[in-house]
Amino acid sequence: MGLTYILLRGDLAEGLGVPFFHLDILTILTVYVFLAFGSVSAGVFALTQGLCMDLFSRGKPGLFPLLYLSTVAVVAILRRLFELENPKGQIIICAAAEICVHAVRALLIILLFPALSPWCQSLLNSALISATMTGLAGPIIFLLLGRLSAALMKDMPNGQKAKIE
Length: 165
Known about the structure:
Elements: H1 2-16, H2 25-37, H3 39-55, H4 63-78, H5 87-112, H6 119-155
Helix pairs in contact: 2-3, 2-4, 2-6, 3-4, 4-5, 5-6
């Protein structure tokens, strides 16, 4: 699901005519994997999705794994402050993780390309809108994935749950 989103994301954003504003489903999926399967699984998922993004983008190698691993770090910190099982906590954590992704990206742009520093202000403004959309969509996607997981669990023998620890 994440790989399909990676491949379609550029086309979707370009078709809508909004290059920097998008609902970051990978952030939501990373938070969901953290909730459902634990921190190690979320880290592996984030690293894998980041490497796939690197393969299909023209960015600097290693940028996207760093961005999505920072998402896991934010979730690990904020889950101690907010309940990840509660929709309010999901909204806050998904939005904060998305803000972190954009903040790390802006920081790297400032450090690597100082001439583009004025451009980062518009990037951070769009990040707030993107974080709001991602945060609000988080509980809805969590609910859908939870129901999908429950339906798939019925088909598994002995109700096994895959968890890496």
